[in-house]
Amino acid sequence: MSAPSFLATKPRLSLAQIINMSVGFFGIQFAFGLQNANVSRIFQTLGASVESIPVLWIAAPITGLIIQPLIGHFSDKTWLGKWGRRRPYFMLGSIFAALALFIFPNVNGLWFAAIMLWMLDAAINVSMEPFRAFVGDMLPDSQRTTGFAMQSFFIGLGAVISSLLPYILTKLGVANEAAAGVIPDSVKISFIVGAVVFLLAIAYTVFTTKEYSPEQLKSFGEIEASNEINIKTPPKQFYSQGLLWLVAGLLLTAILYFNNRNNDQPLEKELYILTLGVAAFGLFQIAAGLLHRGKKSNGFVEIMDDMNFLPNTMKKLAVVQFFSWFALFAMWIYTTPALAQHLYNTTDATSKAYNDIGNWVGVLFGAYNLFAALLAFLLPVLAKKFSRPVTHMIALIAGGIGLISFYFIKDENWLLVSMVGIGFAWCSILAMPYAMLTKSLPAQKMGVYMGIFNFFIVIPQILAATILGVLTKHLFNGNTVQTIVLGGVSLIIAALFTLRIKDK
User: Fold this and answer.
1) What is the third-level CATH fold of 15-218+309-500?
2) pLDDT score for 442
3) Helices 299-307/59-76 angle, 10° precision
4) How far apart are CA 432 and CA 395, in angstroms?
């Protein structure tokens, strides 16, 4: 079937329509806000040591690594009548995420909590991944920066309220302390509220936004008229690449094993996650080659093939994303233990001082998300004046300075100033990379490439979860505020790499 002789112009949407299609992100970030501000606290309450927290968090990024490309690929190829292309995944993910939010704070074992984090993050990812492609589907290129900025606004708003919930509930008289090994009521009630908010916000977007039909998307030139699948990677290339990754991963695993067996100070076992992950990627490449040779060009083969042909802009943004998200993960994991140790000289998760600073971290996280929400609409203005890469660079430098300032501030109230820079970086991280990326992506593969782009968020999180404990223990001698400073340096490195990106 030949392409149409002319293409229709995708209409500009009204501000109200852009708001409607973005409200769901309020619910998504409400859940993420509760998770980011409280999960380390829950783990430590259930008996986790500060060095073991990163590996317990590993569930979240590994889940994203697996779920997002798959959901992106399937949503590219889905059309369920009036439910549309992306919205079925929004709704399905919200239902399971709500169930996980109800169960999570009522667990009574550490590994059960880790499993629930895995389930919660999987469900959130099912809802979240298609939202990025949703902007590309629904908006013309001239409105996409505004669309992603609107998502940043709702992300900031959702995170502000969710981060503040335990603090507000405590002020209202809800218990913020509990017996050893028991999650406080302030956290439990916050998660129940989060479950309800998640469902309602997603449902609002699902029922107020109508997606373009496949015929309309074809008329806009957004998807191909033909459904023919073209795998560009030959089987031999899959085999050769896979073999290299497999050998490298097994070699690194062997080196780590023999080092730990014959060394009085072995490296943490969590590093096996990285080395075996490299080997697993090699096996996936080989499997794709076998399936392709057997003429079984399924979704798995397509995803592996797409990974071999990333757009140039995406490759450059990948480096920026890597250092940005490494810094964010360091902040999310270590802010509570770092400030408790740095300001109050305590590592006792059951102490009043620790739980008080845990609530204050919720306020700080709420503050940077509030600043992110307020600054989100400044991004299109700055991008028009300076270019999108320069705007992103400025924001990342501001965030880096904010994190580094933790080391020098001795009064917890002054940390609110640090949150301004972190909030500016956060709103830009949520919007500008996607605004720069969407123009370079083939429209019919918007979902799967957005899922693959998530690798460069997830991989640094896996790296952070496996080495931050090592660095904190051996390099920083357990001084966790230095881990936060490392995050600040990582943001500044990310800022410098934005200079490689050409603005279009």
Assistant:
1) Growth Hormone; Chain: A; (1.20.1250)
2) 79
3) 110
4) 10
pLDDT at 271 over 80: no
Decide if pLDDT at 290 tops 80.
yes
Please, how many CA atoms are within 13 Å of residue 70, restricted to the half-sphere of its CB? 9
What's residue 157's pLDDT?
87
Q: What global pTM score does this model have? A: 0.79
Q: Which residues have CB under 8 Å from 196's CB, separation 6+?
A: 98
Read off φ and ψ for residue 297, nearest 5 degrees.
Answer: -80, 80
Report how far apart the first and last C-alpha atoms of the chain are (Å, whole number): 32
Report the C-alpha gap between 167 and 176 in whole angstroms: 8
The reported pLDDT for the residue numbered 446 is: 84
Write down the mean pLDDT value for the chain: 85
Q: How many residues does the chain have?
A: 504
Residue type, 4: P
Residue-wise pLDDT tens digits, 434-465: 988 887 887 778 888 888 888 888 788 778 87
From residue 479, alpha-carbon distances to 175, 176, 348 in Å are: 30, 26, 14
φ, ψ dihedrals at 455, nearest 5°: -55, -35
Q: Say whether 179 sits in a helix, a strand or coil.
A: coil
Report the C-alpha gap between 337 and 350 in whole angstroms: 12
CA-based angle 493:248:311, to the nearest 5? 50
CA distance 126 to 94: 8
| CA gap 449, 168 in Å, rounded | 40
Structure tokens at 230: 């073209």
**Structure tokens, 340:** 């408790």
How far, in Å, CA of 54 to CA of 363, rounded? Answer: 22
Q: Does the pLDDT value for residue 5 go beyond 60?
A: no
